[in-house]
Every structure is written in structure tokens, then in C-alpha cells.
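Table S7 (text form). Paired inputs.
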Amino acid sequence: MQANGSSQHNGTSRSDPFDSRPRRNPPSTSNGELASNGTSASQSTKILSSIDEDIVRLIGQHLRGLGFNQTAEQLIAESGCALEHPTAASFRAHVMDGQWDRTEEDLRELESLVKGGKEDIVKMRFLLLEQKYLELYMMCSSAAELRESSEWDGKGPVSRQKLIENLQEFLPPSIMLPPRRLFTLLSQAVEQQKEKCPYHNTQLDSDLSSISLLMDHICTKEQFPNVTTQVLWDHQDEVWHCQFSPDGTRLATGSKDNKLIIWQVNTEHFEVRHLRTLDEHKYGVGFVSWCPDNLHILVCGPDETSEVFIYNSVTGEVRQRIHQNADDSLTYAAWMTDGRKFVVGGVRGQFYFCDIDGNVLDTWEGIRVQGLAALDDKVVLAADTHHRIKGYDFDTLQDFPVIQEDHPIMTFVVDDKKELALVNVASQGCHLWDLKDKVLLRKFHGQSQAFFTIYSCFGGLNQDYVASGSEDHKVFIWHKRREAPVAVLEGHRLTVNCVHWNPTEPSMLASASDDGTVRIWGPKDKLRRRKDSLTSSGRSSPV
């Protein structure tokens, strides 16, 4: 195709010679060879534009891939569009037939067409000789060992097709079509439609078998988590925090009533069942963090709390109780990615680096922590009272700036790829930051936040969405590429303090509120309609 995709205007031939693009007219047979099939000149006078020729070639390639060779030949003959340069077509056939001597002749003819000239010809020749060598000589004790050690599929069409695909990288697409080019273009079109779909939250098959190409892709709001599927009533006071386990099978909720409750999660039926209550926290449970191993939970309290608990979530036993000084305020925590170490801190200036056995490994003095997130096993991000987020390297004991806001940072969270940060800013709402480039990407609209602590989250398919609670009793969900909310969930009666998305079920999220409840949200078709029934806890009810 021409660089700008322009088409022929007056039927004159292109200035490019035949060796830069398959020629039209007269009609051709398979592999670009010219033939006389009785078609009259008047039947072949239609001049196709550049884009039309490309489309014909793509259709012909796709038909051949489906095994409709005669249909493809008829298309080639009638249109006069050769699918590939004749030498490239011969080269492909000789490679697939294992005629290595003939491929050497083809390479000499293709030399002027190869992108990198003689240097690329040498690389192509090496790939051909490598395939020939592997097919002729067993350098291992068995065929299986040979295939494993050389990452080779064995003699035959599979390995030769892979060889063709590697060789095609050296040839312009006008000479030899890339494999399955039509399918690639359709896949790209579908991906673009999914990106534009505000409610796309369902994994689709990569082979396009689960969609229709006859209409644009669009998801309805009913397929998106927008209704309450269950209300959990077990807490007796404000619920401050909630978090699903990394495997999505359990949910931990913490409350002003001094209780940490662990729930069993059934993602198939969107049902949450009470497992156990842990009530050893005299100041309440303000923050919980699941270990990457899905076993341990870090539990912090409000500002008055000077200790941190590590629970075994299966047995309910306290594994460790970390307590340094009575004047400490330890309100935030984050596990390192290895699940063996963690950091804790608070607004009074304590910032500890600890291991799972409760040992304090290092300390950073004077950091008034407003939130924590680990990037790896060494570097931690911490928000402080100077409206900023800085990085702290516990290996080198150096810090570096990352984010600077104009207003107090209340909380923040980092996505799974450690590329984005979602920051809750006092009186400003939620801001999305790029951690690598250290730039503000987006300010999300709609949420109401003054100076309450509200925890937000990433979630949904590929973590394409962000969600946050709000002081107007609602849950707001945004697509991370759109500033306006795609969904506003109503049901709570007081401030929503925390929202967390199930990491393994893109359609399930939980919200915790000052009204003393935890709500489970899901798509409309997951709504359980068992009126007046209770879960096994006797306190949790379906809507």
C-alpha cells in the first residue's frame, strides 16, 4: 500500500516496478503466476484503487487459509490481483515443501526486494540453513529432546510455517503478505471497539469466536456491576475498610465496632458467607491488607492505635503483634511483593520496615504517612502531610519525589502493574497519575469528598476501571480513560468509606459505609431474589 493510502485516479500504472508490488492485469493464477484463462481484455479493464487491491489480496489470503483454493483462484483471475510477488510465492512454496536448494535460488531473486539488502539476505539464509540442519541431523538423543532444546516443532508444516513467518519480517508486505492479515485487522478493529465501550468488562476469546463481525461491539449496562446483590449487616457500627483476598475467595471488613470479620466469597453465585469474627481491637479496625500468600492479614486501627496485628486468616490466630512505642500511630500498612516483609506508618511520623515475624528491620524518621504502597521488595511509595507521594528505597535508604498535589492527599492506591496511582485528594476527588512519567493523567468528576478518609481502587477487566466511595452515600465507577462516571451506585445511607473490586471476578465489588453495612455489587443477572432469606450468619441478607 502507498504510504498515504491514496488510490489510482486515471488508470495509469504505478511508477513502482513490478518487483515492488504484485502487478494487476492480465489475470493471474495461484501464487501470482500469470495465466491466460479465456478472460477477455474488456472483462479485466476495471481499474482497482490501491485500497481495493489490498482488500482483494487479503480476502484471497483468507480464502486460501480456509481451504477454499478454487474460490481464491477465481478471485485472483477475475480481479487480476496477484496475492504475492511471483518469486515470493515460489519461495513460500519451496520452504513449505522443504526444497532447500530452490529456496537459495529464490533468495538471489529476492535480494533487491529485501528491506535490509544483503545483510538481511544473510540472516534469511541462516534461518533456512538452521531449519535444513535440524531436519537432517539429530543432535540429541531423541526427537523430543531435540524439539525441547531447540524450541523447534519438528520436521513438517508447523515448523516450516513458523520459518516462513520469521522470514517474512525481512520482506515488505507488498511482496509477501503477513500471515492471517485479515484476521489481524479484524482483531484490531474489535479491540478498538472494546476500548471505546464504556461497559466492556467481560473477557472475550482471542479468536473472535465469541463476537459477531456483522455489528459493532457494545456491552449493555446490565452486564456491568450496578446493582446490590447482597447486604452484610454483621457489623454494629461504621465500617471503615474492606478488601478482597488476592485470590478473590475471601473478604475482610473492619469496623469502628472493634471487629474484623472474614467472609467466604462464592464468585459463581455472588454470595458472601460469614466465616469468623476477630474482635481484639479496642480502637476499631481502620485498615486491612491481605498478604500476597492469601493467608495472612495486616490490621491497623485509627490514629490512636500504636500496634499492628498479623492474623492467620484460616485459623483466626494472631501470628504477630507489632508494638514499638505507646505514642506511635500506625494507621497504614502495605505488604512487600514477596509476602515476607511489610511497612507500617502513620501521621505522627512513624515509618517502620518489618518482617512477618514482627522484627523491625529499618526505620524512616519524621515521615507523616497518609498512605502506603509497595512497588517491589525494596521500594515503597508513601503519601505524607506535604501533599506529596515520595518513593523510599529501603535498600539504599534514599528517597525520591513522585507526585505533588496542591491539596492534602487522603489516601492512594497503585494498580497491579505498578504504573498508575489513584489518589484521593481532599476537596478535589480522585486523580489518576502516571508513576513513570510523574504526570497527572485525569481528574475524575462527580465524587463528593471533603476531608473524610475514603479508599478507592482499581478493578474490572484488565483493571480498566476505578471506583471510589463518596460523602454523598454513593459509589462512583469510572473508566480510567474517561473523566465522567460510567456508573453511580446508590443504596448506602451514609458516607461510603471504602470500595474494593474482587481481583478475580471483574463483575464483583464491595463497599463499606458509615451506615454499618457492606454491600456486594454485581450485574443485574447476578441479583439474588430470595426475599426474607438470610445467609448462614443470620445477619446477611440478599436484596
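Next pair, protein 2 of 2.
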Amino acid sequence: MFRLFTVAAAILMTTAAGKVLADPLPSWKPGDSKSAIVEFVETVATPGGDGYVDPSERIAVFDNDGTLWSEQPAYFQIFYTLDKVKELAKADPSLVENSAAVKAAVDGNLEALMADDHKGLLEVLAMSHSGMTTDMFKSSVADWLETARHPETGVRYDQMIYQPMLELLSYLRENGFKTYIVSGGGIDFIRVFSQKAYGIPPEQVVGSSIKAEFQLDGAAANTLKLPELFFFDDKAAKPVAINHHIGRRPVFAAGNSDGDLQMLQYATYREEDEGFALIVHHTDADREWAYDRESDIGRLDKALDEAGEHGWTVVDMKEDWRTVFPFELADGR
């Protein structure tokens, strides 16, 4: 009851001129999740309070797949990979004859690609993400995002971002937080759309990467992407990457799967103050997808148990969100 009162007070707070401030999280229904967010933000942003956090330390980190945009029926970067491999195979049909992984990609056989510890997927990822400069790769991704459509919804992939999470990102930034993406997805892939989609600049994206080398061709200097993994930003690697790239421990972390567990722990198991952990629980099969403990994509099992043990905020997508995608607002839903 106290938390609900806190949210109501925040939404109805008036300025000196008597104007009512708009709800910063309009796509969130009143309830425990919204209340916890507002209460935490007000606590850390109120000077002189017991939970006040200096703006320099207000670091918020977000997973991308399944947290900021959808990840079903496969991670969207995989669909980019399949489309690029199909283009390569069309230009050179021998690729299909010489590689079972390429044939699986051309056929859209995700099960075959994911078998044997993702061996086939790693092969086609290397093929489609290397042998070009970083600028060429980013241009390729940008072109793909303009034309590719999700196989089930028929909309652009960069339109399948979560409206409530966009509002949360803006709300945190308005209260002095610096927002970062910390994802198992490719760092160069996400950097293409992070600014436009989320308001997060490329330098505030942390992710997985393949090796690259400097290339000087006459007066042109570039970095050339190589077919070899450099860093896989998942699970226990996420706190390491946060320390390496950001240099500050986050006070707010959001994820949706067991791959985010250590990042959530890193934000909340703190000696100096209390951090905030948020889990997006996919419970809405009608507007999105419903999955958790048994899913091959975005499995949420251990992190869900730990959330219950430590009082983390678990967002029930079906019950807590009025709207899922921005295009629902355009459709008047």
C-alpha cells in the first residue's frame, strides 16, 4: 500500500506553478513493479536522503535481447546472419555443397545450426560477420534493418522494442542515470541502432565481439573484422565487461534470463548501498511470447529463483504492461 501511495504521489506531484507532472511510465500499470521503480529512483535522486546516490554513480545497465526488444523465435542477430549467408550462397553456390552449416542456414534450419553446442551457428556467424571493415559491417546491418521483417509479426525488427522499457530508460536518464546496454549480442550489431532505438549512444554499448585488426590501404585506415571470437559477453563475463568498459559498478540492472544473473548480482550485492535488479518475465503469449524455465532462447530459471529469494523486481509482462510495442500506440491499441 505504501508503494502504491508513493507512485500516486510521484505521478500527481505538482510544480510551483501548480501544473501536474505527467506520468513518466504511462505504459506501466499501477502495481508493485511500477511502485518499486519509482520508489527506488526517488530514493537515489533525493539529496540528503539515506539512499541518495551521487549522479556520477547512477549507472544503469540493460540486457538487450528479451529485455529491450523481443528475442523469439530466435535472437534477431541470427536472422541477420541467415539472410547474409543466403546472399553469400547465392553468389557462390559451392558454399552450400561444402558446408552443412551453410546449407542449414539457407534452409532456415535453426535446429541444425543450434545442435552440437551451436557449432553450425558459430560457423555461419563467423562467415557473415567477418572479412569486411567495421564500417562495412555496420552499413550492412543498417540496410538489413530497413528491409528485413520479423517472420511472425511482419514488422521491422527495430520496431519490436518494448515501449515500457523505452519509458524506463528515459525516466532513469531524466533522474541523472547513465544508461548502458550490456548484451550477449554483437557489440557492433547493436551499436548500429542503439541511439535511434533506445537513446543509448554507441559508446555506451557493451557486447560480444570478434577479433579485428588495423588495416591501412593507401590513405584509408580501417579495422577489419576477423573470423575469430574475441569476447563472449554472457553470464559471469558481463560483470567483467562492465568493469572493463564502464569502470563503475551499476546501481540498477535489468535482464530477462539466466544469462543476466551475474550482472543482476553485481548490481545488488553491494556493501556501500542498495542496488536495484529488474527481471522482465515473458508471460504474455497473446501480445508477445510466454516462456521461462524450459525455453532454449532466454531461459529464465535460476535467476527467477534468486529474484524470489532476494526481493528483486520481477515484471510480469501480461499484468504489468499496458502496452508492449510502440506500434500498438500507433494502431490505437
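The first helix runs from residue 2 to 12.
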